[in-house]
Write a structure and sequence with these properties.
Helix content: 25-40%
Distance between the termini: 62 Å
Number of helices: 17
Strand content: 15-25%
Shape: elongated
Strand order of the largest sheet: 1-2-3-4-5
Radius of gyration: 36 Å
Structural class: alpha+beta
Length: 533
C-alpha cells in the first residue's frame, strides 16, 4: 500500500501552506465547483504562483493525480503522466520540497521512494514548474510538460522502473577464468549469445533502473539505478590457450573458420572465424565438406566388409557412376595400382566413386547419422547447424561419397567426425555443460566397430604422415590422424579448402573459403590449433 507524501515549501511559500494533502483549499472555480470572482488576465501574480504551486505539489505528493492534473494547462496529459510516474516508476511515496519562486518558476526537490520487488531505493533530484495563465480560463495553472516530473524527460516520454536488458554474466573458461569481451574478437558473438540464453540461470541479479521510455516503448536514458545487480557466472568448456591459437590462425587467412574439441568428451575448446560477423560460420555454416567427408564414407565401406585398407582399388583420372556424371581427381592425378588406404591418403575421388555401387543408397547417410551423430539436433549451448547427409541415388549418391552434392557440413561437424574416428564413439559437442540447464544431449545409435576404428585410424595416420596432410602435420608427435578436402562450389572459381585432424585428445577442423587445396590453406590453421597443447 502506498504512503502519502508531503510538501515542504521555502520561506516565501510557507505562509501559503495550510496542511499538505488533498484537503487543501482551492481558490479557483471549475476545480471544486461553485462561483467566484471574475477571471483576471495578464501576467500571473506572485501570490497566484505560490498558491498554484502549493496546490499542485500537495496533490502530487498525496498521489491524487486527477486533482494535481486539474492545476495544469493540460489535465489529460498530466493525469496520465502522474499516474504512470507512480505505477510504472514504482514510486511508493514522494516528498516534494519547494524553494522560493523566481518570478513564475518554482524550483523543487523530489525525494521518491521506489520499491521494486524486495528492493527499495531513495531517489533524490531537482526539478521545477512554471505557472502561466490559462488561455481560455484565465486561471493560473502549471504549464504542463514531462520535464516537471523529471528535467530530462522530453515530450512523449515517461518514467519506468524495471530490470535492465543486459543480465550481468561473467563467462568463464574451463578453468574458471573469465573470458573477457573483446579479447577474442571472433568469440564475442558467442559470448553475447551465451549471456542471452543463460543469464537467468547464471546465479546473478539484473540491474534495476529507472529509465525514460519513449512513446513507442523504446528505452531512453537511464535516470537512476535502483539496484546495481550482481554478475552471475557461466562456466564453459573453452580453453583460452587453444582459443588464442585459433584466433591467430584464422586472422592470417580471409574466409577461415575453425573449431577444436576434445574427442573423449565432446567439449569445445575453441571457435574462431576470420569474419567477425554475427553469423558464426564455424558453428552454423552449411557447405560441402569435400574429401574430408571421406572419413564417413570410408567407415561405411569398411564396416560393410566391401573393402579393406590393403585391397587394390585403382585410382583412374576420371570415373563415372552408373554411366552418369564424370568425376575427376584434383589436377587429374591417377594411380592404377593404389590400395584403398592409399586412395584415402591421396584423396582419390575416382576410387571412392567406383566403390559407391557397393553401398545401398542410404548407406552413407545412415553411417553419418547412426555412428557419427550427424543431424541429430545437437544441444551445444548455442545455435548450431549439425550437418545434413541426404539419401540419394545415381549421380547424387556418387557426389555424396566424396562430400559433394547436397552434403552440408561446417568446421564443428567435421571436427566431431575426426573426433569420432579417433575414439570410435560419438560424443555430442558441447560448449556449456548440460548440467547447467539439464538439456538432453544427442547420442548416436551405435559406436564404430572396433575393427573399423583401427583401420580408419591407420588410414588417417597414413594421410598425416605421407599423404595429402603430411606438410601441415609434419613434426607433430602423439596419436595423429588427418584428412584433407577441396570442395567445388557452383559459381566459385577456386575450391573451398578443408582440413580435419586429431592429435591425442584434441580434434580440429577448418575451412577456408576459396582457399584451394585443403592441405595448403586449411591445414596450417588446424596445425596451429593442434600445436597449442
Amino acid at each position: 500500500m502506498r504512503t502519502a507524501g508531503r510538501v515542504v515549501l521555502g520561506t516565501a511559500l510557507a505562509g501559503f501552506i495550510g496542511v499538505a494533502g488533498i484537503g487543501g483549499y482551492n481558490l479557483y472555480t471549475g476545480v471544486t465547483g461553485g462561483s467566484g470572482p471574475s477571471v483576471p488576465d495578464g501576467a500571473v501574480t506572485p501570490a497566484e504562483v505560490k498558491e498554484t504551486a502549493r496546490e499542485f505539489l500537495t496533490a502530487w505528493a498525496d498521489q491524487n493525480d486527477l486533482r494535481a492534473a486539474a492545476f495544469t494547462n493540460d489535465a489529460q496529459s498530466a493525469g496520465t503522466a502522474l499516474s504512470r510516474y507512480r505505477e510504472d516508476g514504482r514510486v511508493e511515496k514522494v516528498t516534494l520540497t519547494a524553494s522560493d519562486a523566481d518570478s513564475a518558476t518554482v524550483p523543487f526537490r523530489v525525494k521518491a521512494e521506489i520499491v521494486f520487488g524486495k528492493t527499495r531505493s531513495t531517489w533524490t533530484y531537482d526539478s521545477a514548474l512554471t505557472v502561466v495563465r490559462g488561455r481560455t480560463t484565465g486561471k493560473p495553472l502549471v504549464d504542463w510538460k514531462p520535464a516537471v516530473l523529471h528535467p530530462k524527460l522530453t515530450t512523449g516520454e515517461t518514467l519506468q522502473t524495471g530490470m535492465a536488458d543486459d543480465q550481468p554474466v561473467r563467462v568463464l573458461d574451463r578453468t574458471g577464468t573469465v573470458v573477457k569481451q573483446g579479447r577474442y574478437p571472433s568469440l564475442d558473438p558467442v559470448l553475447n549469445a551465451l549471456r542471452e540464453r543463460y543469464g537467468a540461470k547464471s546465479g546473478g541479479a539484473a540491474r534495476v533502473e529507472v529509465a525514460a521510455v519513449k512513446a513507442d516503448g523504446t528505452a531512453g536514458p537511464t535516470l537512476h539505478v535502483v539496484a546495481k545487480g550482481r554478475p552471475g557466472s557461466l562456466r564453459t568448456t573453452l580453453d583460452q590457450k587453444v582459443q588464442r591459437r585459433a584466433e591467430s590462425a584464422v586472422g592470417e587467412r580471409a574466409g577461415a573458420s575453425v573449431v577444436a574439441l576434445k574427442p573423449s568428451t565432446g567439449e569445445i575448446l575453441a571457435v574462431a572465424n576470420s569474419d567477425k560477423a554475427e553469423f558464426n560460420a564455424a558453428l552454423q555454416g552449411q557447405t560441402a565438406p569435400g574429401s574430408t567427408f571421406k572419413i564417413i564414407t570410408a567407415a561405411a565401406l569398411l564396416e560393410s566388409g566391401k573393402v579393406t585398407p590393403a585391397q587394390r582399388v585403382p585410382c583412374p583420372k576420371t570415373a563415372a557412376y552408373a554411366q552418369g556424371m564424370t568425376f575427376h581427381n584434383v589436377e587429374d592425378s591417377e594411380n592404377p595400382s593404389a590400395t584403398f588406404a592409399e586412395d584415402f591418403a591421396a584423396s582419390c575421388n575416382t576410387a571412392f566413386v567406383s566403390l559407391a555401387g557397393s553401398l545401398p543408397d542410404a548407406g552413407v547417410a545412415e553411417e553419418a547419422r547412426a555412428v557419427f551423430g550427424i543431424g541429430l539436433d545437437w544441444q551445444v549451448g548455442v545455435t548450431t547447424f549439425d550437418g545434413s547427409v541426404p539419401t540419394e541415388g545415381g549421380d547424387g549418391k556418387a557426389a555424396a561419397v566424396i562430400g559433394q552434392g547436397t552434403v552440408q557440413m561446417n568446421p564443428l561437424t567435421m571436427a566431431s567426425v575426426a573426433a569420432t574416428a579417433r575414439t570410435g564413439a560419438f560424443k555430442q559437442p558441447v560448449l556449456v555443460p548440460p548440467s547447467v540447464d539439464d538439456r538432453r544431449i544427442a547420442t548416436s545409435e551405435r559406436a564404430l566397430s572396433p575393427a573399423a576404428v583401427q583401420q580408419l585410424k591407420g588410414m588417417m595416420r597414413l594421410t598425416a604422415t605421407s599423404g595429402t596432410a603430411r606438410a601441415a602435420m609434419a613434426g607433430l608427435g602423439g596419436d595423429v590422424g588427418a584428412k584433407t578436402g577441396s570442395a567445388e562450389i557452383d559459381g566459385q572459381v577456386k575450391t573451398n579448402a578443408w582440413f580435419t585432424a586429431y592429435r591425442d585428445d584434441v580434434a580440429a577442423a577448418a575451412v577456408v573459403t576459396a582457399g584451394g587445396h585443403g592441405g595448403d590453406a586449411a591445414g596450417p590453421v588446424v596445425r596451429q590449433v593442434l600445436d597449442a597443447r
